[in-house]
Design a protein that fits this description.
By secondary structure, the protein is an alpha+beta fold. It has a single domain (about 10-155), classed as Roll (Thiol Ester Dehydrase, Chain A). Helix content is about 25%, strand content about 30%. It contains 4 helices and 7 strands; from the N terminus they run H-E-H-H-E-E-E-E-E-E-H. The protein has helices at about 10, 45-60, 65-70, 145-155; strands spanning about 25-30, 75, 80-85, 95-105, 110-115, 120-130, 130-135. It has a 5-stranded antiparallel beta sheet. A two-stranded antiparallel ribbon has the order 2-7. A hairpin with a 4-residue loop joins strand 5 (about 110-115) and strand 6 (about 120-130). It is elongated. The two termini are about 30 Å apart. About 25% of the residues are buried.
């Protein structure tokens, strides 16, 4: 992970805190390396998905919910729906901030995203996850209590 501490973008936006002025956004800094880009030095479109997943997993981990615990408990969280809008390309050498926040809807977990450089909005997205019983491959009608606890910490609900 890149150290963006001197970056103007991160000096205004702090790490996730439920009561902070960032309105529930979790911030995951990334430095754009050559392997994130295509031959022209522009971030490959699929790289943004990888960054969003990493931010989502780290956000949950920040409130004590490790993805490994869910898997051990027999719960999977597959992507059910995804919507992305590309506004501007990030480029090799850029420092970007992947911002995410959870907006739960019953058993659906809607993750909103903004991916920004210091000066530009690059991507906005919504990714919807649903809880599934790992062995039966059936949708769960309620969330595991550990996941509900993590959601409460993230959303203040």
């Amino acid at each position: 992970m890149a150290n963006l501490s001197s970056n103007t973008l991160t000096s205004e936006i702090t790490q996730f805190e439920p009561s902070s002025s960032t309105q529930g956004w979790f911030n995951y800094p990334v430095h754009v390396y050559p392997h994130h880009t295509d031959y022209s030095g522009v971030v490959w479109h699929g790289t943004y998905l990888t960054w969003m997943e990493a931010a989502r997993v780290e956000c949950m981990r920040s409130v004590g919910m490790n993805f490994e615990e869910l898997v051990s408990a027999g719960v999977d969280l597959p992507v059910a729906e995804m919507s992305l809008r590309y506004h501007r390309s990030a480029r090799m050498g850029d420092d970007v901030l992947v911002m995410t926040k959870l907006v739960p809807d019953k058993v659906r977990l809607n993750w909103e995203y903004q991916i920004r450089t210091e000066t530009d909005l690059c991507v906005t997205a919504v990714v919807t996850l649903v809880p599934v019983d790992f062995e039966k491959r059936k949708l769960l009608r309620s969330l595991p209590s550990s996941l509900e606890g993590a959601i409460a910490k993230l959303t203040g609900i």
